[in-house]
Amino acid sequence: MENLSPAALPDGGAQTVLAALEQQLAALDRLGSYIAAAHVDAAIQQMRRDQAAR
What we know:
The protein has helices spanning 13-31, 34-53. By secondary structure, the chain is mostly helical. The protein has one domain (12-53). Helix 1 (13-31) packs antiparallel against helix 2 (34-53). The radius of gyration is 12 Å and the shape is elongated.
């Protein structure tokens, strides 16, 4: 699996990825999959930190 950074995504791509991750986070929360949700939440937070640093 290849790692992608927000900088590697076309304009708006990072926002699209964040929106998809947030939808997945909500779905995992509804299912009670809290460990998986924690991992998705960590990915969202990291992407936001990376965007803020740019």
